[in-house]
Amino acid sequence: MHLFRKRSHISYPIKGDNNQILLDNADITRDIRRLRIMINGNNNTIIISSKAIFKHTSNIHITGNNNFIQIGDGDIGGVFYIFIHGDRCQCIWGDNTTAVHTNIIIGEDDSGCIIGNDCMLANADIRASDGHTIIDTETGKVLNRSKGFITIGNNCWIGQNCILTKNARLPDNTIVGAMSLVTKEFTATNTLIAGAPAQILRYGVKCSKLSPSNYLKSIE
């Protein structure tokens, strides 16, 4: 599969100064197939692995300054949409992590999302920050600031139609049941969590990208 589109130049809409789109460590010279990129701001950096494979059209949209996105090795499988609207934000997509129509929305300065290696995300909605502000009427204090990045460890499986909100953190080998709402930090590895809000249902588990029948065949 060819990484680049047939055109021999870059046609991505990029506005601002000192923005970089890198393939590994070098500037790209033409559009990457099935990857749409739009930048409006200054000093933003996007690094795409030369071993990344996009079989369906994914989108990266940055509005802001000094933001950083990195896409690792491997077949993305489906579609992702990464949207950053802020300054000094980060989004890391690990090696061999796959997606089915996954949205990552980062809308507050200094917030972000880090996804580990070998993860599976099915129609996940990842909100690293709130889009609007909740204010205490007596003190004027903002009540819903993000307290750090959303983090997803290695070898995690995020089931169908899950939502991860700001401050969500999942360690390695976490399985999230379909339609769950993750709003907080979990620290125990090898767990199955589910619910709204999500809670631990089982310890001592891990996942495989194979179907149950194919997994059983693989260990015979």
Topology of helices and strands:
Layout: E1 14-15, E2 20-23, E3 26-27, E4 35-40, E5 45-48, E6 52-53, E7 58-63, E8 68-71, E9 74-75, E10 80-85, E11 90-93, E12 98-100, E13 102-106, E14 112-115, E15 120-122, E16 125-127, E17 150-152, E18 157-158, E19 163-164, E20 169-170, E21 174-176, E22 181-182, E23 191-195, E24 198-203, H1 212-218
Parallel strand pairs: 1-4, 2-5, 4-7, 5-8, 6-9, 7-10, 8-11, 10-13, 11-14, 12-15, 13-16, 14-17, 15-18, 16-19, 17-20, 18-21, 19-22, 21-23
Antiparallel strand pairs: 2-3, 23-24
Structure, described:
- The protein has 220 residues and is mainly β.
- It contains one helix and 24 strands.
- The strands form four sheets. An eight-stranded parallel sheet has the order 1-4-7-10-13-16-19-22, with no helix packed on it.
- Strand 23 and strand 24 form a beta hairpin.
- It is flat.
